[in-house]
Design goal:
14% strand, nitrate reductase domain fold, single chain, four-stranded mixed β-sheet, 17 strands, 514 residues, alpha+beta
């Protein structure tokens, strides 16, 4: 067992407002410059829909992530084997093109016309669409990052019918759910998942993409990047972008300059809905390959298993032997992510079938609100003895959420929703009726203490409870000052050789220690 440390995150989809405040904060800090016009390291998508870029979830199109290899010790890259990747190094046919992000590229509007153009007798001045790359005016707008906002693509005639998450349903079922009067929608905020088994790192021929040792953040070394762009294809979430001005690949850096000083990323801090949580985890590196190659139905449960208990004395002793500091262990014990992912099992990874073992987890949204409580003190939502609505009564279908968050395993999604509903019922009866009824909690596998802790963390948590961030102290861990580099892809470093420790803020160095 080799214990590693990882900064992990949870997004509560039940509380997302779809306001894109997180997107604006990230855009202003990181990608508000030439060459990054189309980059959205943080974006909020409306589901159903095909997302940004178009159909990013469809790996038959993009061949991102890993594929299951029965009988092998680890999965294989879907984009290509290392041999064929090197043979086709100058030809990458499965990379998303600019039209997959925008029709004719990112655009703005000729706002200057509103000030300088003269008003005619018949019309007022109009701001026309203008390309942010070529400067061409009056371009056709056919797609963009906000194209599907607020259910614009959910109807059967729109983009919603191409949503990958309907792949487990028949065409008739999909059509029913996309009918206008029965339409459903949810918001899905996305950033880089900083995976335990990142396909972008494995696919990079130059070894520029790497995973930091001290906190698991996945970065791209701007000096080593040679713009092969296989990281774009390898990432199944399409959260790596190519900067056409610098000729380098870029991605979300999880605001590591802030994390290193104990602050959360800007998108986390800016979120008005308080849906975002961050905390460290300990995991067993030796089991990552085995877990990533498991059968689809077992991916979620095995992913949880490799996350280690920071309260276990044996784990604590082993972690210290592997260089984990006492500050990190203490932070892991207070981590809100550990509680939601491991203890309560209400947070699930996005598309675990991509086999990257993401470090970003989502709490599935509750829908609809529970019906009136029956006299027999049961929070039964339907007449069939279950706590979850059936196809006719649940606006967001369980099958849809299962394809998105559990590799099709409906039991995992059902468990997460059942526990949220149990806590909701428990608190309602306590506050409204003055009765403490723990029967639904027991049925959902929770204790009264769990219910109170869940209510506190999901509804009332303060800043320091939502964000538990441990900073690395090399003087305590015994690591060398070059520990940051971590795991790389093709170009593994020779034994005994380490590169200079650098801080890269895409396009410029912020410091070099020799």
């Amino acid at each position: 067992m080799r214990i590693k440390q990882q900064m992990a995150m949870v997004f509560n989809l039940d509380k997302c407002l779809g306001c894109n405040t997180c997107t604006l904060a990230c855009k202003n800090v990181w990608t508000n410059r030439e060459g990054a016009e189309y980059m959205f390291w943080n974006n909020v998508e409306t589901k159903p829909g095909i997302g940004y870029p178009k159909e990013w979830e469809n790996q038959d199109k993009y061949r991102g992530g890993w594929q299951h290899r029965p009988g092998k010790d680890s999965p294989g890259l879907r984009v290509a084997s290392r041999f064929w990747e090197m043979m086709n190094l100058f030809y990458n046919p499965v990379m998303p093109q600019m039209e997959d992000y925008y029709g004719k590229g990112p655009f703005t509007f000729t706002y200057e016309d509103l000030h300088s153009a003269e008003q005619t007798k018949y019309s007022q001045p109009v701001a026309r669409p203008k390309s942010m790359i070529t400067g061409e005016e009056d371009i056709d707008i056919t797609y963009g990052v906000n194209w599907e906002d607020n259910a614009a693509g959910t109807h059967e005639g729109g983009t919603g019918k191409h949503d990958y998450n309907f792949s487990d349903m028949t065409a008739e079922a999909r059509k029913v759910f996309l009918a206008f009067r029965d339409s459903f929608m949810m918001y899905l905020p996305r950033i880089c998942n900083h995976c335990l088994n990142p396909a972008c790192v494995a696919a990079c021929p130059s070894g520029a993409a790497y995973k930091r040792e001290e906190d698991g953040v996945v970065l791209i070394d701007q000096d080593r990047c040679r713009a092969w762009r296989y990281c774009l294809s390898g990432c199944p979430y399409k959260k790596v972008y190519y900067n056409w001005r610098t000729g380098k690949s870029e991605k979300c850096v999880l605001c590591y300059p802030r994390i290193e000083t104990g602050q959360p990323p800007v998108c986390f801090q800016a979120c008005p809905g308080r849906i975002r949580y961050m905390g460290p985890l300990l995991y067993d590196l030796d089991r990552v390959a085995e877990t990533a190659n498991a059968a689809e139905k077992d991916l979620v449960s095995l992913h949880r298993e490799i996350i280690l208990d920071p309260h276990d004395p044996d784990i604590i002793a082993a972690a210290k032997r592997d260089g984990v500091s006492s500050a990190w262990i203490d932070a892991c014990q207070r981590s809100p992510v550990y509680r939601m992912v491991k203890d309560w099992e209400i947070a699930l990874p996005l598309h675990p079938e991509f086999r990257t073992l993401p470090s970003l987890f989502y709490i599935p949204p509750e829908s609809p609100v529970a019906n009136a409580v029956e006299k027999r003190k049961c929070y039964d939502m339907v007449g069939k003895g279950t706590v979850l609505p059936n196809l006719e009564e649940f606006r967001i279908p369980i099958k849809y959420l299962a394809r998105m968050l559990a590799a099709g395993n409906e039991e995992e999604v059902g468990k997460a929703l059942k526990r949220q509903l149990a806590v909701r019922y428990f608190r309602r009866t306590e506050r409204v009726e003055g009765v403490i009824d723990t029967a639904p909690l027991k049925a959902a596998g929770l204790t009264e203490a769990d219910a109170r802790d869940m209510h506190r963390l999901l509804a009332l948590a303060h800043f320091h409870e939502r964000f538990v961030i441990a900073t690395t102290r090399p003087e305590e861990t015994g690591h060398s000052p070059y520990v940051e580099r971590g795991f790389v892809g093709f170009d593994e470093l020779a034994p005994g050789k380490t590169p200079p420790r650098r801080r890269f803020l895409h396009g410029r160095k912020t410091g070099v220690e020799s």
